[in-house]
Amino acid sequence: QVQLVESGGGLVQAGGSLKLSCAVSGSISSISTMDWYRQAPGKQREFVAAITYVGYTSYADFVKGRFTISRDNTRNTVALQMNSLKPGDTAVYYCRGRVNGNTYWGQGTQVTVSS
User: Fold this and answer.
1) How far is 32 from 54, CA to CA, in rounded Å?
2) If you write DSSP's letter for every residue of 41-57 in order, what string do you get?
């Protein structure tokens, strides 16, 4: 059974930083693209950032220049460094991974940015 577990969420003031982590565990033979999504109250889940196995990255326009996605293939982890946070970044952040050819989601971690 494959599991994705996020950590690192919390409460931060506007302009501050947080680093989210996602660890993949279980019976793993391959992990390809890993993503971060987020969902604010009353809104649809939206794409934040993605990283391929070899490190190619892509970002949503609203986080470009503020967030950085990275991964450690030896530890099966992916991270999201979030800087210059805004109240509009408040949401539950989810990790998604393509593992063994299937797509898995984490349970989410809450990020709250106060003004």
Assistant:
1) 9
2) TTS--EEEEEE-TT--E
Q: 30, 29, 32, 39: which is closest to 6 by C-alpha?
A: 39
Q: Which tokens hold the place of 4? A: 């994705």
- What's the one-letter identity of residue 30? S
Question: 112 has which bridge partners?
Answer: 11
Gap between the Cα atoms of 64 and 77, Å rounded: 21
pLDDT digits (tens, 9 = 90+) for 12-70: 999 999 999 999 999 999 999 999 999 999 999 999 999 999 999 999 999 989 999 99
pLDDT of residue 69: 98
Give the pair of three-digit tokens for residue 80: 């999201």
**pLDDT for the residue 3:** 97
Residue 72 token pair: 């450690």
Neighbours of 114 (CB within 10 A): 11
Query: So what's the pLDDT on residue 59?
Result: 98
For residue 61, what are the contacts with CB-CB under 8 A and spacing of at least 6? none
